[in-house]
Amino acid sequence: MKPLLEVHAIETAYGSSQILFGIDLTIQAGQTATLLGRNGMGKTTTVRSVLGLTPIRSGTIRFDGHDIGRWSADRIARLGVAVVPEGRHIFPNLSVRENLVAFACNRSGTDQPWTLERVFALFPRLRERANNMGNQLSGGEQQMLAIGRALMTNPKLLILDEATEGLAPLIREEIWQCLNQLRNMGQTTLVIDKYVQRLIELADQHTIIERGQVVWNGSSDTLRQSPEIWERYVGV
Questions:
Q1: Domain residues for 220?
Q2: Sign of the torsion formed by the C-alpha atoms of 104, 107, 109 and 111
Q3: What's the rounded Cα separation, in Å, for the pair 200 and 221?
Q4: Helical (H) or strand (E) element with 147
Q5: Distance between CA atoms of residues 190 and 172, nearest Å
Q6: d(CA 5, CA 66)
Q7: Is residue 226 situated within a structural domain?
Q8: Is residue 144 assigned to a domain?
Q9: How many structural domains does the chain have?
Q10: Quick count: other Cβ atoms within 10 Å of Cβ 99?
Q11: Is residue 201 included in any domain, yes or no?
């Protein structure tokens, strides 16, 4: 079976400053994968390259059978890639309900699409806040809304950049529970986060990058048995 996402040997730069040096990343349909590494090592640039937001200089990116390495960001999104960006970027002057409905579409063509009611069932707090404006939400509620908004596009691949960054412990736990539910539903997901022990419980496979290069790739079982790997490359 061909991977849903296959990134091969991509190199990406901002002007004269090269950030990625031959990144490889493969995700099968239905998998939960992670991209790990310390801040500034190229994780977000890898995501931006997949999304078409930062053009690659070389290498290939294939998604769902299409070579998308030179596609525009909007065309890639329509193919079924959705992102929950670092910083959330919800619309502050729209209500929770409006933020969700504005993005509703069925890009994966599923016969059980995400709807407003399904998102409210996943995040009951959003139902309570349905008529509140985006700028009236807490950071945790904004993150829930950002995830719900991405799900409303019914993506084939959901990417979460810094999934629980800056959240209170109780809210962070709600997000982990949400990600577990999505995994059990078969949602293909790529997660960037620093809580390696939680990611080991959640994900099928992990890719660690350092200074724009892949330094390790493997399963949760292997990573669990090799704490020296993530302590070396991910630990503070």
A1: 1-80+196-236
A2: negative
A3: 8
A4: helix 139-151
A5: 17
A6: 9
A7: yes
A8: no
A9: 1
A10: 23
A11: yes
Provide the H-helix boundaries in 152-219.
169-184, 196-202
User: Would the pLDDT of 5 be above 60?
Assistant: yes
Q: φ, ψ for residue 97 (rounded to 5)? A: -60, -45
Residue 236 confidence (pLDDT) above 70? no
Residue 20 has pLDDT above 90, yes or no: yes
Inter-CA distances, 215 with 38, 118, 124, 135, Å = 12, 39, 40, 40
Spatial neighbors of 128 by CB under 8 A, at least 6 apart, are none
Sequence-distant (≥ 6) Cβ neighbours of residue 93 within 8 angstroms:
133, 134, 135
Q: How far apart are CA 219 and CA 204, in angstroms?
A: 6
Q: Is the pLDDT of residue 79 over 80?
A: yes
- The CA distance from 122 to 226, in Å, is 34
Contact of 20 with 12, CB cutoff 8 Å:
yes
Report the CATH number at residue 38: 3.40.50.300
* Calpha distance 34→36 (Å, rounded): 6
For tokens 């992670």, the residue is 34
Within a domain: residue 214? yes
Spatial distance between the Cα atoms of 11 and 18, rounded to a whole number of angstroms: 8
pLDDT above 70 covers what percent of the chain?
Answer: 100
Predicted TM-score (pTM) of the model is 0.94
Q: How confident is the model at residue 166 (pLDDT cuts 50, 70, 90)?
A: confident
pLDDT band, very low/low/confident/very high, at 85 (cuts 50, 70, 90)? confident
